[in-house]
Amino acid sequence: LCFAGDARVRGQTGVLSERRGSYPFIDFRLLNNTTLSGEIGTKKKVKRLLSFQRYFHASRLLRGIVPQASLYLLDEDYLGQARHMLSKVGMWDFDIFLFDRLTNGNSLVTLLCHLFNVHGLIHHFQLDMVTLHRFLVMVQEDYHSQNPYHNAVHAADVTQAMHCYLREPKLANFLTPSDIMLGLLAAAAHDVDHPGVNQPFLIKTKHHLASLYQNVSVLENHHWRSTIGMLRESRLLAHLPKEVTQDIEQQLGSLILATDINRQNEFLIRLKSHLDNQDLRLEDAQDRHFMLQIALKCADICNPCRLWDLSKQWSERVCEEFYRQGDLEQKFELEISPLCNQQKDTIPSIQIGFMTYIVEPLFERWAQFTGNTPLSENMLNHLRRNKAKWRSLLHKQHSSSRSNDHSGQVTGSQEQTLNKEETP
């Protein structure tokens, strides 16, 4: 494996080096009102200490032990509600935003500890609970909380969805403990240290990561290498044979790299071919791994398939992140990227296009694979209802714009979306 500086470059994706090009020096941490590096280190140490203290509370929670003294950061009401939610972690209406509040911003750590226990992974792989917790805290902290969308709550949401998919009978009947652990770890770490901007932005600003990975799956490669760095630093798997850990590292890379949206058609065509030819053999490790890749891709973009209230929050968050990139590009006189212009790219138009061309094709094939299970049907029903609501909102925007503009013109992106949606 090739690492930047032979280790994780933690928290460094936000720096654009002025030595790489003519653009001004941009530090996303400073733009997000983060303090100086010395203070960052101090805060991180304190935060990690507090997180470690939470472990003792969380471990009692996961064993079903009610604490006898109120010595912890979360009171009993919150703990009781969090415990109740964990008992329903396999339900599709799981509210990750509520769970994150109940766990004091530790949804990813708490969820993963619980799922590793539920799936018997701690016992099977003889994992040390303290080391596991330390690794998960590292993963959670390496997400940027300033990002509206690509943050630890998104990672927890994807992980919860992955758990649901791993329980689908067509897949669950063949999965090994290694498959399950890989699926959960990849879901938890698939966007770690995401800078809140996309790959084209990194390329056109000559970011060092774009150079390092030669403009190919830049963010996904960084997420993978960062994850491997944390695994090695935490020594979570140090007790396993070297060939086993090497295989885990490579398979994690294959899963995380599959989330590159630029490879969507590649995976969709391959999945369609397997389904049409009925030649998937899940007894074969290679075919199981491919379906884990598909499951992670589904989990990563499942927001439009959630309940409207949850889906709408995610839609607003991802568009806010797009708009922030657009503002940054405008500030430094760069061409504004597609979907990032708040004046032209509305949330309804963005979401309708995303659902139509990315989400629907993938989830229809996933439903075909699972045999149209209740979960798959539920997700597709939510997707159709949510799309109809966004279309209704887009038409309202269209009508409002027309009433305020005697020429009856709408923005280019709205007109394009409307034309596509209304064409038989």
TrEMBL record:
Native species: Cathartes aura (Turkey vulture)
Catalytic activity: 3',5'-cyclic AMP + H2O = AMP + H(+)
Protein's GO biological process: signal transduction
Binding of Zn(2+) 1, residues: H154, H190, D191, D300
Pfam families, per database record: PDEase_I
Full protein name: Phosphodiesterase
Record carries keyword 4Fe-4S: no
Residues that hold AMP according to the record: H150, N151, A152, V153, H154, D191, D300, Q351
Sequence segments annotated as region (Disordered): 394-424
Cofactor note: Binds 2 divalent metal cations per subunit. Site 1 may preferentially bind zinc ions, while site 2 has a preference for magnesium and/or manganese ions.
Compositionally biased spans, kind Polar residues: 400-417
Domain PDEase span(s) in chain numbering: 74-397
InterPro entries hit by this protein: HD/PDEase_dom (IPR003607), PDEase (IPR023088), PDEase_catalytic_dom (IPR002073), PDEase_catalytic_dom_sf (IPR036971), PDEase_CS (IPR023174)
CDD domains xrefs: HDc (cd00077)
Claim: Hydrolase is one of the keywords in the record: yes
Biochemical pathway: Purine metabolism; 3',5'-cyclic AMP degradation; AMP from 3',5'-cyclic AMP: step 1/1
Keyword vocabulary terms for this entry: cAMP, Hydrolase, Metal-binding
GO function term, MF aspect, one: metal ion binding
Known EC number: 3.1.4.-
Binding site for Zn(2+) 2: D191
